[in-house]
Hints:
This protein starts with a helix and ends in a 13-residue tail after the last helix. The chain is an alpha/beta fold. The chain has helices at residues 3-8, 26-31, 33-46, 99-108, 115-122, 126-136, 141-145, 192-209, 224-233, 243-254, 259-273, 278-293, 299-310, 312-316, 329-344, 352-368, 373-378, 385-390, 398-405; strands spanning 16-19, 60-66, 73-79, 82-88, 155-165, 168-177, 180-184, 217-220, 238-241. It folds into 4 domains: 3-89 and 394-410, no CATH class; 99-136; 141-242 and 328-368, Nucleotidyltransferase, domain 5 (2-Layer Sandwich); 243-320, no CATH class. It has 19 helices and 9 strands. It is elongated, with a radius of gyration of 24 Å. Strands 7-6-5-8-9 form a 5-stranded mixed beta sheet, sandwiched between helices. The protein has a 4-stranded mixed beta sheet with strand order 1-4-3-2. Helix content is 48%, strand content 14%.
Amino acid sequence: MGKADAATSTTRLNRTICLPFSQEPYDNKINSAVDFRKFLDAQYDLFPELFPPSFSKGYRMKDKYRSKKLSIWIRRIKVDGIAYTIRPAFAMPYMTGFTKDVEKPLMLRKAAVPFWMLAYGFGKNPMYWYRMETSLGKNSLIGTSIKNPEYLPQHISADEKHSRIKGEKVYVPCTVGNDCILGVAVKKSAGQQDLEAGYGVFKKEAQDLNPTYSPQTCNTDGWMPTMNAFKSLFPAMVLISCFLHLYISIRDRSRKKFKDIFRLVSDKLWSCYQAKSKASFAQRVRRLHEWASCREMPSVIMTKLEKLRNNLPSFSIAYNHPGAHRTSNMVDRLMQRLDRYLFCTQYFHGSLEAAEQGIRGWALIQNFAPSNPRTVAKYHGLQSPAERLNGFRYHENWLQNLLISASLGGFRGPPQNP
């Protein structure tokens, strides 16, 4: 790898360890090397995943410096010959602000509140808030959102969102699991090569957490380049066709023009879906097709019912994998939020790389920002999808929890040497 490549490598960015310091006694700990070391050792005992893999072999204090932006002291340590910065979670990356001052504006980004409104309500300017959200996108989505390799989802869903950059068509492949956005990218086409590269980011970050990881199943809408991309990335994975997309394709073409027939077909379709076993599902689908064949059925409906019967294995195979997604509901709900995000920003305006980093930052906010109070109560106080996935949080403040989870950029592997 050349010098230019090494300088821009993502793994060179994971040299900041973010820890849950309290702001008030921070100055006392930072000025005393002994107290600071005691705190680091205690945090490592509690949360070893926040530290470099070789931290247990020992480390030494390197130096400390004062941040000119926030006027706080920052210490650095050396682990295995590599310097790491220790940043308190009450300070944002690049010392752009204190967490307490920006967590409410950034939480509003979960509802796609535009940057100019954040500037109007909380000061600064729109680019300040844009850059703050975008900076979060440098972290690993999976390594930040999932702290235990055992929690990597065995059943995922994937789909692509159509968008534009400066009027040019682009596609946003999204991978979701356990109600979290675990993979997102921006690509120029929906062909297999670009989709494989887009979904490949999900694979790379997942296998950074667990090198042998391969999901059991993936629910897709049946788009062949999507299916081929996942077959190439995870040859052992089972692909499941989305039953909901089949229903929607019938509904959109017949709900108004063939109202009465659509109601009958709709009831019978969902009766098929609710079958308790693979054999029962297959039998109900065959009976539905036989029933439709004996009637003057509009071609827009009959064609889809024939597709269901002819591709029965790709729908019924979900019964072999308990917990697999038979519909794309989970990814569709999150992509509805993505749709609002893109609409409120009037789509993308910069480079492909900036668009991708920005949308990754937005995805982490979706994973960590609190859900509505009724949902929080339903899950016994677990505030966000990431908390519900991991079963705990590092800090009561959602943004500090995100920043701590993003220690080392969310990556588990060691960084490259300088």
